[in-house]
Amino acid sequence: MLTLAHPWLLLLVIPVIALFWWRRRRPGPTAALRHPHTPVFGPAPRSWRVRLAHVAPYLVLAAAILMVVALAQPRRSFHSETVEGEGIDIMIALDISGSMQAMDFAPRDRLAAAKDVIRDFIDGRPNDRIGLVVFASRAFTQCPLTVDRQVLKGFLDEIEVGLIEDGTAIGLGLATAVGRLRHSDAESRTVILLTDGMNNVPTLEPETAAELAATLDVRVYTVAIGREGLTPFPVDTPLGRRMQQIETHIDEELLRDIAARTGGIMDRATDPEALARIFARIDELETSRYETRVATWHRELMVWLLAPALVLLGLAGLVQEIWLRRLP
């Protein structure tokens, strides 16, 4: 919005207009030509010089008013504010291993279905700080904790299978998410772990990561995505992409143990509706106070007034010194 840093300076417009009016009303020197037969001259037409003489003072007046407004320092302001509300800190740890391409969530694969539900979950929790961790054979933070929903969903859209070498490092993914909550001051800190497989990367045991979460008082909700057994899976062949039945297994016992160690719950989603219900259940978590400070800046507009004021003054001076110049 447009604001003035010193609005009281606009009062200077009053003396500027008063001075202009006084100078226009003050009688100036007049010249007269005496002749015994003045009617023979007839009415004298007003030349362009005479008309221009009346314009120059108004140019000066306009320039003076623009300068006064410029002194008031107009600017476009973006206000700072402190936003307070109820919320929790949530890290979502999402499995992006190759098995997430299974098509038992047809017409979407497991990863696409999970992203759809996570996107709706993000939109439904405007008062929370939410972050995103992805894992396969390794784990990394896709987006740290943030209240910026557009940025978070932008990072979510970029996730796809193949960003990391294949594998399922559940322990490493959980530990990375918990580590992002280590310095959180929220009363409630939560990790939502989504996976469709079994831990097969011996970098960090999932039980160790769960103990770390329990020590830091981080609740972990585990979600098993997909069906066990034969599931349709896209496979590239010389004749193009074909669907083949591939055996998949999910370590439900491990996921149940992780949730139990941290005070969370474990759920199984075999279709998009079940996955949505699980996130709706998680949506009922307790909340805690948070505070976010929004930045402020100003865009100064003074130059947009001073520049035309100087142009008007220069034009008035040009008129007075060239076209209306008086010779002795």
Blueprint (SSEs and pairs):
Blueprint: E1 2-4, H1 13-25, H2 48-71, E2 74-78, E3 81-87, E4 89-95, H3 110-123, E5 129-135, E6 139-146, H4 149-157, H5 170-180, E7 189-195, H6 206-215, E8 219-225, E9 229-237, E10 240-248, H7 252-262, E11 266-269, H8 272-282, E12 288-294, E13 297-300, H9 303-323
Parallel strand pairs: 4-5, 4-7, 7-8, 8-11
Antiparallel strand pairs: 1-2, 2-13, 3-12, 5-6, 9-10
Helix pairs in contact: 1-2, 2-9, 3-4, 3-8, 5-6, 6-7
What does it look like?
With 328 residues, the protein is of the alpha/beta class. It folds into two domains: 1-13 and 49-79 and 296-328, no CATH class; 82-292, Rossmann fold (3-Layer(aba) Sandwich), CATH 3.40.50.410. The chain is 38% helix and 26% strand. Helix 3 (110-123) runs parallel beside helix 8. The two termini are 54 Å apart. The mean pLDDT is 82.
Strand content: 25-35%
Estimate the helix proportion, in percent.
Answer: 25-40%
Radius of gyration: 37 Å
DSSP summary, beta strand count: 13
What order do the SSEs take from the amino end to the carboxyl end, as H and E? EHHEEEHEEHHEHEEEHEHEEH
Q: What's the number of helices?
A: 9
Provide the residue-averaged pLDDT.
82
Gist?
This protein has 328 residues and is α/β, with parallel strands linked by helices.
